[in-house]
Every structure is written in structure tokens, then in C-alpha cells.
């Protein structure tokens, strides 16, 4: 089992920044949140 992080709370942060932080904090996986762009 790997410890992961859901990216939904970081919607306003670039994914690369979230991934860099998560890696440095010891997370081994990311669950990427996605939803349709509002019009």
C-alpha cells in the first residue's frame, strides 16, 4: 500500500508544484482530481 494525496484541495495550485511538494513530504502517489471546466 502506498500513501497518497488527493489533489482536489489544491485546485488553484499548479499540478507540478503539488507533485513536488507531495514528493518532498514523503507521499508516494497522487490521486489526480479533475472535473469539467465551467463555462
Key descriptive features of the protein:
39 residues, alpha+beta, two-stranded parallel ribbon, 1 helix, 26% helix
Q: What does this protein look like?
A:
The protein is built from one helix and two strands, in the order βαβ. The longest helix has 10 residues, at 15-24. The protein is an alpha+beta fold and 39 residues long. Strands 1-2 form a two-stranded parallel ribbon.
List the helices and strands and how they pair.
Layout: E1 4-6, H1 15-24, E2 29-31
Parallel strand pairs: 1-2
Helical segment count:
1
Mean pLDDT: 92
Uncertain runs are none
* Helix-strand topology string: EHE
Sketch the major β-sheet: 2 strands, parallel
The radius of gyration is 11 Å
Summarize the structure.
The chain is α+β, with helices and mostly antiparallel strands and 39 residues long. 26% of the residues lie in helices and 15% in strands. It has a two-stranded parallel ribbon with strand order 1-2.
Amino acid at each position: 500500500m502506498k500513501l497518497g494525496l488527493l489533489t482536489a484541495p489544491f485546485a488553484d495550485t499548479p499540478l507540478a508544484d503539488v507533485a513536488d511538494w507531495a514528493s518532498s513530504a514523503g507521499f508516494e502517489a497522487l490521486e489526480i482530481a479533475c472535473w469539467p471546466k465551467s463555462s
